[in-house]
């Protein structure tokens, strides 16, 4: 075994470092290509070359309760078993310097290169008539309370109070079936979700159906997302009043939405007249959408209005669209997996300055994507719904694959991957079928929040089946938009 050499040597001791079952999803070849592109390859022999630092960042996400040196020991400790090697795990100072040398952009680009939807044609719940169901949503992550982090990310003051920790805002597009985040953007907490979402719409593809909550709709955002070729299914605010064109047989209706600003009333009238006559419209000024109004009478019963770019009821019915929109909540489940089960409940990130903080966030997104892809692949192979696989159980399986010194010398990545697939889909790691239930939005701990404190009377409600969709009547002549 060669214990030293140039950066390009193939016999370096650190070439044995891997992240267990996740190595096949984040392969060394991708890391080397990204590192070469960004010019951050080390110029002399180091204990922590750039590709090892990326794997170390993933390990730090897998072991959020351990400090730098403990995680480094878990990741590289097996190197001490190499005959003739005198390996010692790197110190905290060496890890900090290595992270600074690597920077943020290589980790971000690794995520962008490998993060892809995980579901196949046989994955349950992944498709709606040939369209891959996706969702966009945002969340915040707490950071250490340092002056540098406050200056870069800020403290959110929503609800009339200032948060105790600075927060980073993340907006992500995820696959509903697998919860895998395939595109994301990160900024300070003052950045708006709509603003961050604009940079993500170009990552959509024609096979996708993007669902979004009412906070993401705007006329420019709709057009930007549609330019990608993907279809859209968005909830809109109650104040949006699309101009009625005609009713459709399935209970939905066609409408035209005009640009809200910069058009005179006479211009809007001409655009609406052109839409009624079936003439083509300039999408920069007006678009035709299909509207689905419905309630869920056996839940809260509130009025929900959806607009979609799928105009033909023969492709997808209004009831199918209404049921599909409820899958948007799978994005919330994925966010909960990242924030609560992977990072840890109430835990802040490690990084005390902005550059490492961005780097750490991208590492969490990369790690979560890899875990979700592992779960989805194992579930699809076993003929299961990915929702039934235990996320935390899978995290533990991956942790064991990283620290399994009984497998030394390290197995080929394919062997570790195959064994992990079997363990993830094993009956011990499979939940019972998901029950139909809902919970009130309330906080458990007493703190300032936009939600009230949880009461003893707040109990989960179980239902015998999925929510009932009740389509609402289409607008009458007197209710049509102005």
From TrEMBL:
Q: Which domain of life is it from?
A: Bacteria
What is the protein name for this chain?
Answer: IS4 family transposase
Which Pfam family name is an example for this entry? DDE_Tnp_1
What spans are recorded as compositionally biased (Basic and acidic residues)?
A: 450-461
| Stored InterPro entries | RNaseH-like_sf, Transpos_IS4, Transposase_11, Transposases_IS4_N
- Recorded source organism is Actinomadura luzonensis
Q: Where is this region: Disordered?
A: 427-482
Query: Transposase IS4 N-terminal domain: which residues?
Result: 18-112
Ranges of compositional bias, category Basic residues:
427-449
Any idea where the Transposase IS4-like domain is?
Answer: 130-368
Cleavable signal peptide: none
């Amino acid at each position: 075994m060669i214990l030293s050499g140039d950066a390009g040597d193939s016999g370096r001791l650190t070439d044995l470092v891997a992240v267990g079952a996740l190595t096949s999803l984040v392969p060394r070849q991708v890391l080397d290509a990204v590192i070469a592109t960004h010019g951050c390859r080390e110029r002399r022999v180091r204990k922590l070359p750039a590709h090892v630092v990326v794997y170390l960042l993933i390990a730090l996400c897998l072991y959020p309760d351990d400090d730098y040196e403990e995680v480094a020991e878990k990741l590289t400790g097996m190197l001490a078993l190499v005959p003739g090697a005198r390996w010692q795990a790197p110190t905290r100072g060496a890890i900090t310097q290595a992270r600074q040398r690597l920077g943020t952009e290589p980790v971000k680009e690794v995520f962008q290169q490998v993060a892809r939807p995980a579901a196949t044609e046989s994955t349950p719940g992944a498709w709606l008539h040939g369209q891959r169901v996706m969702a966009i949503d945002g969340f915040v992550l707490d950071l250490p309370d340092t002056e540098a982090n406050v200056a870069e990310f800020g403290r959110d003051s929503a609800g009339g109070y200032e948060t105790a920790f600075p927060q980073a805002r993340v907006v992500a597009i995820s696959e509903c079936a697998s919860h895998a985040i395939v595109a994301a953007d990160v900024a300070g907490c003052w950045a708006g979700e709509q603003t961050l979402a604009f940079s993500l719409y170009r990552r959509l593809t024609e096979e996708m159906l993007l669902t979004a909550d009412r906070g993401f709709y705007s006329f420019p955002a709709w057009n930007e997302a549609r330019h990608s070729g993907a279809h859209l299914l968005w909830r809109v605010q109650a104040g949006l009043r699309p101009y009625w064109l005609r009713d459709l047989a399935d209970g939905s209706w066609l409408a035209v939405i005009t640009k809200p600003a910069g058009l005179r009333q006479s211009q809007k009238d001409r655009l609406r007249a052109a839409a009624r006559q079936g003439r083509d419209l300039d999408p920069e000024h007006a678009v035709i959408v299909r509207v689905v109004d419905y309630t869920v009478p056996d839940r809260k019963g509130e009025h929900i209005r959806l607009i979609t770019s799928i105009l033909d009821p023969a492709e997808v019915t209004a009831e199918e669209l209404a049921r599909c929109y409820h899958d948007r909540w799978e994005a919330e489940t994925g966010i909960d997996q990242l924030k609560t089960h992977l990072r840890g409940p109430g835990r802040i990130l490690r990084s005390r300055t902005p550059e490492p903080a961005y780097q750490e966030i991208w590492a969490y997104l990369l790690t979560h994507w890899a875990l979700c892809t592992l779960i989805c692949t194992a579930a699809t192979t076993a003929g299961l719904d990915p929702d039934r696989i235990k996320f935390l159980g899978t995290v533990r399986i991956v942790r064991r694959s990283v620290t399994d010194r009984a497998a030394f010398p390290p197995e080929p990545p394919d062997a570790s991957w195959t064994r992990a697939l079997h363990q993830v889909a094993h009956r011990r790691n499979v939940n019972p079928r998901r029950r139909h239930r809902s919970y009130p939005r309330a906080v458990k701990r007493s703190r300032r929040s936009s939600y009230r404190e949880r009461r003893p009377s707040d109990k989960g409600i179980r239902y015998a089946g999925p929510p009932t969709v009740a389509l609402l009547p289409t607008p009458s002549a007197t209710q049509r938009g102005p």
